[in-house]
Amino acid sequence: MDEDWGSPEFVKAQFRQWYARNSDTIPAPIDIAHREFAFLTFHGRTMYRHNRFPTLDKLRRYLRSNAPAHSYHSSGYYDDPAADMARKGWRGADLVFDIDADHFDLPCQMEHDRWWCRNCDNQGTGHHPEICECGKAQFETETWLCARCLQAAKHEAQKLLDILIQDFGVGTDELTTNFSGNRGYHVHVHSDGMIPLDQQARREIVDYIMAIGLEAEYQGFSQRNRGVRPTLAEGGWRGRTGRALYDYIQEVEPEEVKSMKLSRRATKSIIEDKEKVLNTLMKRHPSNVTSLIDPKSLQTVLEKAVKLQASEIDTVVTTDIHRLIRLPKTLHSKTGWQVQTIPYGSLPDYDPLTRATVITGDPVLLEFRWAPKIKINDVEYGPYEEEEAELPVGAALFFLCKKGARLKR
Amino acid sequence: MSEREAAKYPFLKAGLELLDGLDLQLDDLTDPNYGKALDRAAERVKEAIVQGVVSAKLADPLTELLSYPLAVMYVTLIGEQFLSRRFALAEAVRAYNLLQDEYEEKITRIAVDEFGWDIRRDPENIDGVPHTLKLAYPDYLRAASSFHEAKWKLVNRKMENGLVCLTGVEAARLLQVGVEQWVRERVSTPSSFTLPEPLQKRLDDVKKVFEENRVRLSGSQLPDEVINEAFPPCMRYCLEGLLAGKRASHMERFGLTSFLVNVGMPIDDMVQLYTSVTDFDESLTRYQIEHIAGLKGHRTKYTPPTCSTLRTHGICRNMDSICETVSHPLGYYRKKVRRLERQREQQEAEPSNTTAQQ
Ligand code: SF4
Ligand SMILES: [Zn+2]
Ligand SMILES: [Zn+2]
After folding, report:
1. Structural domains for chain A
2. How far is the CA of B245 from the centre of ligand 2 (A)?
3. Per DSSP, what are the bridge partners of residue A374?
4. CB contact under 8 A, A215 and B162
5. What DSSP string runs through A284-329?
6. Helix or strand or coil: residue A44?
7. Best B312, B316, B317, B319 residue to mutate vs chain A (most A CBs within 10 Å)
8. Given A89, B92, B215, B223, which residue has the most CB atoms within 10 angstroms?
9. What ipTM was assigned to the predicted interfaces of this complex?
10. Cβ separation of B141 and A135 shorter than 8 Å?
11. Contact between chains at B312 and A205 (C-beta distance less than 8 A)
12. Model-level pTM?
């Protein structure tokens, strides 16, 4: 008899073995006794919620005996983490950020992501459209990943860290950065200033980090303003806006400028008098730019430019004060990889494709239905389509967890 | 602190201590000597109701100081949330008007001593305007969260190392919010006890003014019927997505559901809407809608998220000219309904014209 795609029994056994040996390396989240824990098993879709572990030892014992497919802890701190939601007694919550390459628009997604309409026979690669040609919006999707999307996610994470540290003054010891185990990164901030903030304040922080609602006038770009110095070296969004505009104008193609439908004067300034605009930005207060690019056009250009400096975070995760977030150092059963904590300063050199495969073992024979190519531990695999191949367990687990293959016996 | 200072900001610790020292009982207040304070107390509440701001009468500081706790007492005895909010705001505006003329040192001292803010003097010139103060972002966010102008958005402020630059006037404006929250906490629990005659007389007087103004102040009502054409673009977007069977995000579903509840769509219609287009389970859907409508659980009826919340989550789409003037989808709806009504009235006034066009 054929195995199910993904061979869940095999994956589960591998997880079990790993937890048996490695549970003692799982660290406790800060203030473990006031956190809620939640788990998903390999079978069924119900989440086991409202668990509480007064000590790290109890948590480790649980992981060892259950070897969960997914493990989470709450961003929130509660009087009674085991009570139901209404009776938990919220005390505060870490500010958490989720950066997931799935939310970006990247060329590589055309190579490794696919979708099908459940209603008609329409299908395609990359992201599915909002609404299918048939008028419905019910899709099946298959999303993979590659070095390029992981790199894009890392870039967003780095920008986020810079904003948190420079602008919000978060100490490097008040945050942790984790590889999510799949397509992105999680940043947890547990500084005293952040923990008590309500949803509305968190929303304002999200807007800050994504530059939502940023207006040119308040970054210095207004005829009314009377400043003397350029702002490029300033901290916060004022400096970042100036630098973003500088970089953008320096690199933008004339075609793109024309497509933005700016005023004729602004279009001319950016395309033909580029040097003059750049020089003004570099040497003079930004109010002087408004005589080259009118305020309305400037706002349009800025909205594009600041996106280069803003960070693409998931807005819902960060504004949720009861969020469940992956428990660092546990395993992720959609990849077989480990959720890893990255020490501050090491992010630029961190590569999940060589670090996150923590389960190792003898090669196994797989039968593939479809899988794009990916480089794991410096070995290139795939693309595979209806074929068999023998892979080391670490790599094999990835294709099994993504349900692109099954064990061949 | 001098009596005059206490009279300016009667809600501060010093003012309250001064009052405690007098150790007054309700019955003492029937003494005609306190007549002025009783009158002024009633006047404070009436000013709040009618003008939305309490005046500052500092010529007789003791009366001004004494009248504040009495005004608070009147408000709690009337026990209407709407009045409590209005009174708190009016007292806060009074304080703001006074604070604006103070030296920054005084402003920071009140902020630090009374509200525990992390604020300091550290002058910086921004675009030619001196910003003399810096406030820690958690305090800033708590106070500025109710402001909608672009200049108060954190992303439009200069912030470094967790400190937000402010001018003295801006700090006073933020303190106003602190005062408002402070007063509101003290007037939001209704009380009931019997007052001696001279006090009761004045309370009746205040009540009368409140009743007279109530309708004028509580805003216009929404129509009973649901007017689809008046939906704002964001809600149309959510609705169209739903009708196409799109898997809506939590925020989209919550936004749409709470919007529909608030414009008065009957729950049965909503359940039908949701279950007809998707594979939602009927009883679960009903439960969730009833929860949002305040029929289940905590029994609070949820209002839809504000425009700025919807914007954060990418649901604010296809803004039109009405959108520029509102901060809430329900505000949009209200405006559009009125506009549609006016159009209809006009058309009815010129019937020949419309038939000719058809
Ligand atoms: S401005 Fe407000 S009402 Fe208009 S579309 Fe955006 S969220 Fe909706
Ligand atoms: Zn289709
Ligand atoms: Zn990719």
Report:
1. 8-100+148-200+314-407 (3.90.920.10), 109-145 (no CATH), 216-307 (no CATH)
2. 11
3. A381
4. no
5. S-GGGGGGTS-HHHHHHHHHHHHTTTS----HHHHH-TT-EEEPTT
6. coil
7. B312
8. B92
9. 0.93
10. no
11. no
12. 0.86
